[in-house]
């Protein structure tokens, strides 16, 4: 029997603008990047990729980025697996507080924390000074904790990304059928054997979902390598070539390379999970399988979770202390600053480079959230309430930004929306001025934030619509209400909590977005917070203190946003960070 699709005029009126938006602001920039890297002097050529394959410097970029991604993925695994197991399978005093505190690293990208960590772990920073005073090392031979910057990037990325892995693993653990574990115990399996042979295999899809996100984000990390002056990664090389995008095609070739590599990693993940069967027998509602932790287990949990929390809070503590330090002389060869000041916070709200950046970030984030909200509502409604041809393709297209490096899309915008390109060449100058980031990046910053965070909005609203019975809407329409009236009066109010939570997440993640901000904000008057932090951190004297104060302001805004989002979504917050 042939399927009947819902392609009525009202549906097309919703679907076509969405497809046009995704075509222009997601597909077109990527196609432009591929065209510029493969079409040289009027003909198809692989010269740039041959150069990358034969040049040792370019191979080093790929190897270093891959090593960082692998190290971060392994580190987040060793942290998140026991963390998720302890906090979901054991009851002990303080568990809820710990479940909240371990998510704190989400509120600050490693780009910001790296500034403060350099102060703590510098050759003559707080940690080495403490070790000297304890007699553990000699003052003349301090420990170079971060070396060339590689380990600094790995540590900062790990501390920032382990909550993403943790949330996916927790969601996977919640879906494990307790009866299977109970059956294994009844057959004499020890707790370790039970975890290794039953629990772990069943939670692998959730682990791999978090793992691929961590791998891709670490592979394309831009901010931390910039702060640590570790230029030997692909993302930094792309950033350095933004200004030459129209004259040097190598930047486009690097974007294609990083896009293909991340797409390949995503494909391998999907194939790996698709080759195995993880389905469990259907079951009715059951409570989570928790046991009361004994005294010895409580000690183990407190030591492990406490250690993770202590490490995770180091970047936040470091930027707070740096922001309160008057100048370099007040925190040199001492464990803590010798004096404190709020002067840098006063400058944040009065400085010509900082106050406008806060206003800009708020403006960009608000309007990108509104744009993502409109798109998320329309797409999730069409996917859950209408039968569309190629609906899976539409869903995959919207989720594509999760697997797409931020530097790739931002670089594509810089190149494809110049006034010399096919799309803008014949348009009036007034429209070109709005879309060309070299003249005014406002529109593209809003759009890029929305496109990058649209998957979070979609998954939040989509989950709410899936859990809401369609019978309410059918009853409304049977009583004479039009589809638009039913949507606004019945459907949307029922998923209001999901809408609010998704909106808060999009807003908060946009406030401290790094890749899009550093690449697209090409004029100082349009700088968002992260670009202002970067500019301040590059000043030879005193800039890092104001940068840290600005980072703390952004951190406070994000903390409030995520607390409110968690209030609405509760334990379902982790579902938004899933890709499978």
Can you give me a brief rundown of this structure?
The protein is mostly helical and about 575 residues long. Helices cover about 70% and strands about 0% of the residues.
Describe it for me?
The protein has 580 residues and is mostly helical. It contains 25 helices and four strands. The strands form two sheets. The protein has a two-stranded antiparallel sheet with strand order 1-2. It has a two-stranded parallel ribbon with strand order 3-4. α9 runs antiparallel to α12. The chain is globular, with a radius of gyration of 25 Å.
Return the structural class: mainly alpha
Adjacency order of strands in the biggest sheet: 1-2
Number of helices: 25
Tally of strands: 4
What is the percent of helical residues?
Answer: 55-70%
Order of helices and strands: HEEHHEHHHHHHHHHEHHHHHHHHHHHHH
Distance between the termini: 30 Å
Mean pLDDT: 82
As a whole number of angstroms, the C-alpha radius of gyration is 25 Å
Q: Poorly predicted ranges (pLDDT <50, ≥5 residues)?
A: 281-286
Largest sheet: 2 strands, antiparallel
**Oligomer category:** single chain
Question: Which percent range describes the beta-strand content?
Answer: under 5%
* Shape summary: globular
């Amino acid at each position: 029997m042939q399927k009947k699709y819902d392609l009525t005029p009202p549906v097309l009126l919703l679907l076509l603008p969405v497809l046009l938006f995704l075509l222009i602001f997601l597909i077109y920039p990527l196609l432009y990047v591929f065209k510029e890297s493969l079409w040289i002097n009027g003909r198809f050529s692989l010269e740039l990729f041959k150069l990358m394959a034969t040049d040792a410097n370019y191979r080093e970029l790929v190897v270093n980025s891959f090593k960082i991604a692998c190290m971060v993925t392994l580190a987040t695994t060793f942290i998140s697996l026991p963390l998720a197991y302890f906090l979901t399978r054991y009851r002990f005093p303080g568990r809820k507080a710990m479940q909240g505190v371990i998510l704190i690293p989400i509120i600050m990208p490693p780009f910001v924390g790296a500034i403060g960590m350099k102060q703590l772990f510098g050759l003559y920073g707080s940690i080495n000074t403490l070790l000297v005073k304890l007699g553990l090392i000699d003052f003349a031979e301090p420990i170079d904790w971060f070396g060339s910057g590689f380990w600094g990037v790995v540590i900062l990325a790990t501390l920032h990304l382990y909550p993403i892995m943790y949330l996916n693993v927790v969601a996977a653990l919640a879906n494990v059928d307790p009866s299977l574990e109970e059956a294994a115990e009844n057959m004499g399996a020890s707790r370790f054997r039970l975890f290794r042979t039953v629990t772990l295999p069943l939670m692998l899809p959730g682990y791999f979902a978090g793992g691929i996100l961590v791998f891709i984000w670490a592979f394309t990390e831009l901010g931390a390598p910039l702060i640590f002056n570790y230029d030997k990664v692909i993302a930094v090389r792309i950033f350095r070539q933004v200004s030459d995008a129209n004259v040097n095609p190598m930047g486009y070739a690097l974007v294609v390379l990083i896009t293909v590599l991340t797409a390949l990693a995503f494909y391998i993940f999907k194939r790996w999970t698709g080759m195995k069967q993880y389905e469990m027998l259907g079951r009715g509602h059951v409570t989570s399988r928790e046991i009361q932790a004994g005294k010895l287990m409580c000690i183990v949990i407190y030591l492990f979770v406490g250690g993770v929390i202590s490490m995770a809070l180091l970047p936040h503590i470091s930027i707070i202390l740096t922001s309160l330090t008057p100048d370099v002389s007040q925190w040199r060869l001492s464990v803590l600053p010798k004096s404190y000041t709020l002067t840098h916070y006063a400058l944040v709200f009065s400085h010509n480079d900082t106050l406008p950046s806060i206003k800009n970030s708020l403006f960009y984030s608000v309007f990108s959230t509104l744009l993502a909200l409109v798109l998320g509502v329309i797409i999730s409604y069409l996917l859950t309430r209408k039968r569309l041809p190629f609906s899976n393709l539409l869903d995959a297209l919207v989720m594509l930004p999760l697997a797409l490096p931020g530097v790739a899309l931002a670089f594509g915008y810089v190149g494809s929306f110049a006034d010399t390109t096919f799309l803008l060449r014949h348009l009036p100058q007034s429209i070109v001025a709005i879309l060309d980031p070299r003249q005014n990046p406002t529109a593209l910053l809003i759009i890029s934030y929305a496109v990058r965070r649209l998957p979070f909005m979609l998954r939040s609203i989509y989950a709410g619509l899936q859990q809401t019975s369609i019978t309410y809407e059918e009853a409304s329409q049977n009583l004479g209400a039009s589809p638009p009236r039913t949507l606004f009066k019945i459907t949307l109010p029922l998923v209001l909590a999901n809408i609010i939570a998704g909106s808060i997440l999009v807003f908060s993640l946009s406030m401290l977005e790094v890749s899009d901000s550093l690449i697209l904000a090409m004029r100082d008057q349009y700088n968002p917070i992260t670009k202002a932090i970067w500019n301040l951190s590059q000043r030879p004297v005193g800039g890092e203190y104001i940068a840290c104060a600005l980072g703390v302001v952004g951190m406070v805004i994000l903390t409030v946003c995520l607390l409110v989002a968690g209030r609405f979504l509760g334990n379902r917050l982790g579902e938004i960070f899933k890709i499978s």
